[in-house]
């Protein structure tokens, strides 16, 4: 198994060729072009409505509807999607980007997040509009709006298969690989033991469904994200005189003006955008699956919350890791990669005890990511077929991949993650590009009500011409006006 899952076999060659085609010739251009397009057509929604984003997020701490079985709260959905985002992409992925692309990769991570926040708004708003009812409240995502808005179930099934393979199998291998790597680097623990422990804990939670996942995520994610940011800020304050030099290094290396480590213009862009997309997932089509679970009065509200999640993930948490690493010379010494680079940088700042902090942080970040990844797989398995046997088989495969990830080689797992992530992102980006007008009309409907001093509310006939709207029919706009 280990020899087959290796970067230097025929399998590794196929994965590398697929990545080269997708990332070099298709996806980077698509992400940047559509990111800027969505930013302009929404009139910079990710900056203009930042206040609304924060307001909707914290209004979402009300649990009354959740207790009544009406889906998740906006804060819980934010926690689930942030759980999937705030994982190895933030701690290990940033380290990989710097070691392969140089400090300039961070600039491109920032850029893809700033424009990607508009993409995140569009895809999550669409997911809310076309969500469907289920026993836990609601579910939805790209597969659902591909079927209902585009009338292309085949495309929805293709996306559902890709995201199930990507998140349900490959990404959870990435997460457990990073957890195991952290414990091996800090305490030399057998990675198989770590894999067994994680599989057992995850199994207890995932068999409880989305509501149990939501409860765990809304506790774990805020506590450890805030703790990690505080530690990073302490390090920056202790090294405040060096911070301007780090900014200078990031910007100069981003445009190939300074060769550092992997260096170079192309390497910085490629690794920055790859790891940036892996971290914030904007446009990938993953977060809309969480966004669709929310009971909310207007689809645009959840689009705004998910847009905020993109910004928090990369601009705040990924930047925290970047500065921890770049304020040392750890990334220029030896061949250390992944989470161990972040551990070494933290230890250089705060002493050996920091290894324990990073190890615990990566455990909870990656563990919460596993919960988010699992739910994305579940929602799409249920799109393909609602027969219980398929969900049971998926759960078993999910837990098996936890064990595979803990004991496999880092390089090939990251490469496979990039391949499947790129493929599903292309499918989703094409779909939301075709459905942009619906998201823009929904945003305008929301803003019109806000300007009139009303609480934005959406009904199945709020926008003329929409078809297959299942979850907004409890009252119509027409009936309300009578």
From TrEMBL:
GO molecular function: amino acid:sodium symporter activity
Protein keywords: Cell membrane, Membrane, Symport, Transmembrane, Transmembrane helix, Transport
Compartments in which it is found: Cell membrane
Membrane topology listed for this record: Multi-pass membrane protein
Gene Ontology CC: one annotated term: plasma membrane
Bilayer-crossing regions: 22-45, 106-130, 151-171, 191-210, 219-240, 246-269, 310-333, 353-376, 388-413, 419-440
Pfam families attached to this UniProt entry: Na_Ala_symp
Family: Belongs to the alanine or glycine:cation symporter (AGCS) (TC 2.A.25) family.
Protein name: Alanine:cation symporter family protein
Phylogenetic classification of the source organism: Bacteria, Bacillati, Bacillota, Bacilli, Bacillales
């Amino acid at each position: 198994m280990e020899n087959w899952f290796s970067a230097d076999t025929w399998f590794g060659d196929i994965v590398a060729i697929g990545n080269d085609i997708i990332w070099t010739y298709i996806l980077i251009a698509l992400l940047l072009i559509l990111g800027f397009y969505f930013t302009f057509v929404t009139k910079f929604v990710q900056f203009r409505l930042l206040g609304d984003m924060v307001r909707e997020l914290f209004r979402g701490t009300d649990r009354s509807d959740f207790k009544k079985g009406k889906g998740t709260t906006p804060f819980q959905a934010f926690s689930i999607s942030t759980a999937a985002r705030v994982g190895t992409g933030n701690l290990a992925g940033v380290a990989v980007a710097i070691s392969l692309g140089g400090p300039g990769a961070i600039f491109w991570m920032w850029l893809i997040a700033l424009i990607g926040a508009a993409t995140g708004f569009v895809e999550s708003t669409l997911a809310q509009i076309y969500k469907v009812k289920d026993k836990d409240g609601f579910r939805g995502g790209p597969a659902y709006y591909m079927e209902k808005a585009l009338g292309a179930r085949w495309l929805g099934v293709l996306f559902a298969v890709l995201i199930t393979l990507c998140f349900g199998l490959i990404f959870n291998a990435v997460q457990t690989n990073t957890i195991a790597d952290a414990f091996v680097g800090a305490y030399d623990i057998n990675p198989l033991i770590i894999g067994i422990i994680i599989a057992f804990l995850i199994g207890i939670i995932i068999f409880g469904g989305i509501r149990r996942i939501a409860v765990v995520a809304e506790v774990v994610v805020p506590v450890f994200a805030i703790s990690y940011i505080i530690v990073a800020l302490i390090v920056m304050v202790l090294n405040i005189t060096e911070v301007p030099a780090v900014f200078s290094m990031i910007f100069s290396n981003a445009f190939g003006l300074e060769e550092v480590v992997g260096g170079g213009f192309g390497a910085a862009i490629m690794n920055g955008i790859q790891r940036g997309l892996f971290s914030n997932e904007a446009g990938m089509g993953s977060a809309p699956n969480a966004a669709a679970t929310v009971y909310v009065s207007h689809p645009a509200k959840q689009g705004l919350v998910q847009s905020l999640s993109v910004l928090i993930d990369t601009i705040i948490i990924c930047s925290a890791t970047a500065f921890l690493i770049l304020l040392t010379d750890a990334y220029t010494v030896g061949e250390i990669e992944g989470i161990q680079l972040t551990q070494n940088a933290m230890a250089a700042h705060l002493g050996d005890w920091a290894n324990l902090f990073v190890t615990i942080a990566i455990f909870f970040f990656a563990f919460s990511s596993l919960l988010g990844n699992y739910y994305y797989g579940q929602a799409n398995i249920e799109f393909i077929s609602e027969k219980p046997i398929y969900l049971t088989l998926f759960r078993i495969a999910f837990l098996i991949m936890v064990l595979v990830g803990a004991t496999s080689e880092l390089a090939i797992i990251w490469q496979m993650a990039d391949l499947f992530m790129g493929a599903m992102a292309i499918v989703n980006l094409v779909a939301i590009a075709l459905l942009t007008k619906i998201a823009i009309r929904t945003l305008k409907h929301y803003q019109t009500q806000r300007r009139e001093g009303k609480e934005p509310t959406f009904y199945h006939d709020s926008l003329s011409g929409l078809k297959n709207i299942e979850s907004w029919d409890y009252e119509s706009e027409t009936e309300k006006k009578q």
